[in-house]
Amino acid sequence: MRFLHTSDWHLGRSFHRVSMLSAQRAFLDHLVATVRDREADAVLVAGDVYDRAVPPLAAVGLFDDALHRLAALGVPTVMISGNHDSARRLGVGSGLLRQAGVHLRTDPAACGTPVLLDDAHGPVALYGLPYLEPAMVRDTLGAPRADHAAVLGAAMDRVRDDLAARPGGTRSVVLAHAFVTGGTASDSERDITVGGVASVPAAVFDGVDYAALGHLHGCQTLTERVRYSGSPLAYSFSEAAHRKSSWLVDLDADGSVHAERVDCPVPRPLARIRGPLEQLLDDPALARHEDSWVEATLTDASRPHDPMARLAQRFPHTLSLVFDPDEGPARSTASYAQRLRGRSDQEIAEDFVAHVRSGRAADDAERAELRSAIDEVRAADAVAEVAR
């Protein structure tokens, strides 16, 4: 059986205030064409279909059109909700959509109930594990603790129990949205740390033939059977070196896996350039970036006059400007957003404590208190979203 594994569409997201709707539409055109031309038997979408819980209407329109086109091909689609999605909203109409071959898996309680497909070699059970917010699903899944490893482990126990009751030779695929140990993050994923820990071990997926992962935006192979497809588009300059792609996965009769990367269309390349302003404006080696989206880091000792306008004359698609002088107080010129880039909520809170106490860092008890407060706020936000 052949699957196209994709994730993290983030429909409705912009890139440094540039709308990505046309690029997202081009990706969905590519997705449908790949499914048709490469004769995929099913499409797997491992979460973060939308970029936020209440997506803009244009993003909903893209999603609706993609589902209609996939259904018209007669190719089943199995899709889970991610941490950016509203599971409740994404799951609306799932019963009716199932009749068209679109299987939306957004209910944690249904982790052990697979979508069953068949090929010439027998049945394949596809289990959808939506993003599991530990505080919200611990009781539902009977997990011993409210952390990512415990709730995902409890969900996988349900998968293995169901699989054990099925006929011998049944092959299995799991879709999950999580941060798995060994994966490499980028700046554009939302922090999901709970209790100071964000990741879970890859061994949690033992016992299934393939784990189709979502959440991290880089295409990655953790093991031959555990892979991230990554996002189809870049959503931060930290992804400038990414090769955006999906996985075309062949699951053989004996459960062995063969995976091929299928490149996604690139709306515009990304470039990170660094140096004094005059050097960036004159360096002939940078000509290849003149049509790229550019993040420029200026290393001038003092801030040049009107740098963005001058950069835009050579690099008209410059979107981000960072100041990092080679001499002097480099951090004092960075914007607040730049100084927070890549830092977790816990790190930001601890930095604030140290700042207001003239450099005296939080002790172990205070760090634990901050961690507990952050976890409570995240859980409360998740509960409020479900209640809307």
How are the elements arranged and paired?
Layout: E1 2-6, E2 14-15, E3 18-19, H1 21-37, E4 42-46, H2 57-73, E5 77-80, H3 87-90, H4 94-99, E6 102-105, E7 115-119, E8 122-129, H5 134-141, H6 148-164, E9 171-177, E10 179-180, E11 199-200, E12 210-214, E13 220-223, E14 226-228, E15 245-251, E16 257-263, E17 270-275, H7 277-282, E18 293-298, H8 307-314, E19 318-323, H9 336-340, H10 345-356, H11 364-387
Parallel strand pairs: 1-4, 4-5, 5-6, 8-9, 9-12, 10-11, 12-14, 17-18, 18-19
Antiparallel strand pairs: 1-15, 2-3, 7-8, 13-14, 15-16
Helix pairs in contact: 1-2, 5-6, 10-11
Structure summarized in a few sentences:
The protein has 388 residues and is α/β, with parallel strands linked by helices. The protein has helices at 21-37, 57-73, 87-90, 94-99, 134-141, 148-164, 277-282, 307-314, 336-340, 345-356, 364-387; strands at residues 2-6, 14-15, 18-19, 42-46, 77-80, 102-105, 115-119, 122-129, 171-177, 179-180, 199-200, 210-214, 220-223, 226-228, 245-251, 257-263, 270-275, 293-298, 318-323.
